[in-house]
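Structure (tokenized):
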């Protein structure tokens, strides 16, 4: 139905210029009333800024704020300063005198507009001023740069007067065509928005000076015909081009705009949900009506045409609320509508409960009161919302549930809308992916992750006094849990109250309380440690470590980091939380009196003092995760999983180790920190590395490979030697912890590992000798053999190794560059005899002069069925095979060797050459592999020899 005062403009019937003037006057009338509301809500110094801004863009004066040079573009279209403008300028500088410019000087500033919440229901003391300064499209780049500099100086001047101002330069012609050099916002709005930004401009902007929008003069029913309609207005001189500013129309909004706008509001809503929820729901409302959406700015324009100038009903925020209200009521979503109402109330931030109502009677409170009366809110509801600044954990947790559900629902809506409408450009789909990760990082629950319960809901949820209690878990007999309670509760008094939070482990509870600001530096904590060893000293230091490692507030997460998988930034390892390790050991007296100080293999009973490790991690997505390791190998499991989380990334976190238990805390922390630093340094080398660590009764070997980190736990010397003797196909450095294998000769040998050589080590004992070989891949071979003399010990080894190297050389290309010349080096462990070796001395390779009996014994090993092998032996070129001799082969060969000996010495049989070519196929085969087969063959031969000659000596 047509309103009796509605103005209609029909081109084919002719347009009366007086009607256009009337329309413009209506817009200016409501504009003036909004401007007055904005001014009334500002301080006197802020009012001074707002009053002077049009004048400051109109003139260049060296003593006025924003002056750059006399040639900076200045002059606002149609603007002549009033007496008030001049008076305000003279308050800044008495020498200012305005001189009107005669003739027709250029006025490159076409319009100045105030955007944002000023003049609206949501205006507050801290509201900022967003100004659009529309300039002539003809400005050259140098002129735009000078004008931009002027804007920056004016922002700084406004800030000095307590006004936060953001000035954006707008080229109207480029803007109308969807071109923008920079975002028209104080922040980056992600995917490009144009029409929704224009919609917000037309329904919220307050005109300050310059030309007025051409859009005002186009009826809603001609919006689809905007271009032709406005061209007619200008061509037929119904309006002058010098009076109108054309920023474009809202005839149709592309589907992708809703995705872009929703993305941006969701992004901001993660940290400030109340502030973003209204715009987010408006975007959803618009999108649900696509493609026949009618923007709020068109409703606003229609009301002006109908002369419905109710300032309250067409307040920008009230209009947004009314549209959302209709949308949610039609869908029957009352819970969402109630959340929207709370968001609007908290955004406006004008308290209406009885205590505050009597003190204030401004127009914003009157309008808000009218709305809350409509909603049927009780005094209790108002009081609860007005006390938001005092909300604590319980209320915040309830509110968070609704807000997270709404943000998650909006994300799903946007994703589905982008798919069904084909609105997902590559950029927007990328933004959707990034946003999904932001939501995941902020709100997704998973094991070990600390839940953030206060995403901008309450300003401060820190508690003054809390009680921390360890108590038996009645649902799991034999176990305990930790609870955090309000107030200072005495022994057993806490049993009559519900905890704020309960966790199985102490560190999870403390990390939750710190991350959410429930405990801050002023919180007083009462402690009931239960069966734990936790002291107030340790509790204080645990909280201090958390505050240092996870410093609040956290820095915002960049898009670049969200595009990558999350990685650890900060790792805090807390050892023996709430546990005194000495109280848990079986022989306290030995532990307390011994001089041995290694915390991982402590005292005569070799106990590990690291009983538990709590790992707190802050990753690159600002997630905080807590994991506990306990049991015999707690530290080892922690280190393995930590290293595996780092192995695929070059990024290295800062790792801190802390321990505050009652006994030996500093020594324990330093020892663990030393191991962590060593492993991180080895991991950073990038290639294969091995690290040997002694913990209590066990030896552990970390295998640091380029794609994973594994851990071998070995019990005893033989198991370690067997492990270190496993076949390898490339050189693998071996690093020993400084406390590893202290009761063994192995460290002297293992620390000598070198590339591209074979190293033979020997130690002479009473009637036997230990032989060690580190091959070209740093694989260890060890054998204890009877000792005849040093020559008979080393010469068979030398002969065999030379034959192996000859076989290797024969399989290599002839080019000198590709030939591998492996040297053979000898060293003796000293002193000889019983006890532990203390040093190494290099020795020359054994000489053939010492070789008394030398008898060639060659072996060839071939593959057989079911993983077995066939062995053929050659004694001075004479063949002996299993095919001929069966299981008597070794005894027959031993008899042959014995018969050929020229001396009466009863010494062992040795293999002097070995062929494994059929087993190895095209592979080279390491020296240690040949040595292992050699030992097995020699063992069989010497068993055969013993059967013939029981009195065999070395």
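Design, position by position:
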């Amino acid at each position: 139905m047509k309103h009796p005062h509605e103005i209609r403009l029909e081109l084919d019937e002719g347009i009366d210029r007086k009607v256009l003037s009337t329309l413009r006057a209506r817009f200016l009338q409501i504009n003036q009333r909004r401007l007055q509301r904005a001014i009334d809500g500002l301080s006197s110094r802020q009012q001074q800024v707002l009053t002077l801004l049009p004048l400051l863009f109109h003139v260049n004066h060296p003593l006025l704020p924003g002056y750059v040079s006399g040639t900076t573009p200045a002059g606002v279209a149609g603007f002549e300063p009033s007496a008030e403008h001049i008076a305000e300028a003279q308050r800044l500088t008495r020498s200012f005198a305005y001189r009107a410019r005669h003739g027709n000087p250029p006025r490159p500033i076409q319009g100045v507009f105030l955007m944002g919440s000023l003049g609206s229901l949501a205006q507050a003391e801290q509201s900022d001023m967003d100004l659009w300064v529309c300039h002539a499209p003809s400005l050259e780049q140098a002129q735009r740069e000078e004008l931009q500099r002027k804007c920056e100086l004016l922002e700084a001047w406004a800030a000095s007067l307590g006004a936060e101002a953001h000035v954006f330069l707008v080229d109207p012609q480029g803007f109308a065509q969807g071109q923008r050099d920079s975002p028209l916002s104080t922040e980056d709005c992600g995917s490009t928005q144009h029409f929704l930004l224009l919609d917000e401009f037309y329904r919220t902007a307050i005109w300050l000076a310059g030309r007025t929008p051409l859009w005002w003069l186009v009826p809603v029913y001609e919006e689809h015909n905007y271009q032709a309609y406005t061209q007619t207005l200008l061509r037929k001189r119904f309006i002058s081009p010098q009076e109108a500013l054309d920023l474009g129309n809202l005839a149709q909004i592309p589907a992708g705009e809703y995705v872009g706008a929703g993305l941006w509001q969701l992004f901001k809503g993660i940290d400030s949900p109340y502030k973003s929820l209204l715009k987010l729901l408006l975007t959803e409302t618009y999108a649900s009506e696509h493609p026949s959406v009618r923007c709020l700015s068109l409703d606003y324009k229609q009301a002006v045409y109908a002369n419905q100038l109710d300032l309250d009903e067409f307040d920008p925020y009230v209009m947004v609320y009314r549209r959302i209200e209709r949308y949610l009521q039609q869908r029957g979503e009352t819970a969402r509508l109630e959340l929207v109402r709370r968001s609007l109330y908290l955004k406006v931030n004008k308290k209406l409960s009885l205590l505050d109502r009597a003190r204030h009677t401004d127009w914003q409170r009157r309008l808000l009161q009218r709305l809350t009366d409509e909603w049927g809110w009780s005094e209790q509801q108002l009081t609860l919302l007005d006390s938001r600044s005092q909300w604590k954990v319980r209320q915040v947790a309830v509110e968070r549930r609704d807000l997270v559900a709404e943000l998650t629902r909006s994300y799903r809506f946007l994703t589905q809308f982008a798919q069904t409408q084909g609105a997902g450009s590559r950029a927007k789909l990328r933004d959707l992916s990034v946003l999904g990760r932001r939501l995941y990082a902020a709100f997704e629950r998973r094991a070990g992750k600390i839940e953030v319960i206060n995403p901008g809901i309450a300003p401060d949820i820190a508690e003054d006094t809390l009680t921390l209690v360890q108590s038996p878990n009645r649902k799991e007999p034999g176990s305990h849990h930790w609870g955090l309670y309000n107030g200072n509760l005495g022994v057993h008094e806490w049993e009559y109250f519900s905890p704020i939070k309960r966790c199985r482990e102490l560190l999870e509870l403390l990390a939750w309380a710190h991350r959410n600001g429930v405990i801050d530096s002023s919180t007083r904590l009462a402690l009931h440690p239960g069966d734990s060893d936790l002291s107030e000293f340790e509790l204080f230091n645990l909280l201090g470590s958390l505050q240092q490692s996870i410093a609040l507030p956290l820095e915002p997460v960049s898009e670049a980091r969200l595009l990558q998988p999350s990685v650890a930034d900060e790792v805090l390892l807390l050892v023996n939380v709430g546990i005194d390790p000495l109280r848990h050991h079986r022989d306290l007296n030995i532990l307390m009196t011994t001089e041995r100080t290694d915390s991982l293999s402590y005292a005569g009973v070799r106990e590990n003092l690291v009983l538990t490790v709590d790992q707190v991690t802050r990753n690159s997505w600002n997630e905080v995760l807590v994991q506990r390791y306990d049991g015999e190998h707690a530290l080892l499991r922690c280190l393995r999983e930590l290293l595996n989380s780092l192995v695929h990334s070059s990024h290295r976190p800062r790792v801190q180790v802390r321990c505050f238990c009652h006994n030996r805390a500093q020594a324990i922390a330093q020892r663990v920190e030393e191991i962590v630093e060593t492993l991180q340094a080895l991991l950073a080398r990038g290639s294969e590395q091995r690290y040997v660590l002694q913990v209590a009764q066990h030896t552990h070997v970390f295998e640091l490979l380029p794609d994973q980190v594994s851990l071998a736990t070995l019990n005893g010397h033989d198991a370690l030697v067997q492990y270190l003797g496993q076949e390898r196909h490339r050189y693998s450095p071996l690093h020993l912890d400084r406390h590893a294998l202290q009761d063994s000769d192995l460290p002297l040998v293992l620390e000598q590992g070198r590339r591209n050589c074979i190293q033979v080590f020997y130690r002479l004992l009473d009637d036997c000798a230990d032989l060690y070989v580190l091959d070209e891949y740093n694989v260890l071979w060890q054998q204890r053999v009877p000792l005849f003399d040093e020559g008979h010990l080393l010469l068979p080894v030398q002969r065999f190794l030379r034959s192996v190297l000859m076989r290797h050389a024969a399989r290599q290309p002839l080019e000198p560059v590709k030939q591998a010349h492996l040297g053979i080096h000898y060293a003796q462990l000293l002193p000889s005899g019983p006890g532990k070796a203390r040093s190494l001395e290099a020795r020359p390779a054994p000489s053939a002069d010492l070789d008394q009996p030398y008898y060639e014994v060659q072996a060839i090993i071939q593959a057989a069925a079911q993983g077995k092998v066939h062995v053929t032996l050659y004694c001075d070129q004479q063949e002996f095979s299993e095919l001929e001799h069966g299981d008597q082969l070794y005894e027959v060969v031993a008899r042959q060797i014995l018969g050929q000996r020229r001396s009466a010495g009863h010494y062992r049989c040795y293999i002097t050459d070995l062929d494994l070519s059929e087993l190895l196929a095209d592979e080279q085969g390491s020296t240690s592999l040949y040595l292992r087969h050699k030992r097995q063959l020699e063992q069989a031969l010497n068993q055969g020899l013993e059967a013939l000659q029981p009195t065999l000596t070395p």
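Reviewer-requested clarification: The radius of gyration is 42 Å. The CA atoms of residues 416 and 422 lie 10 Å apart.
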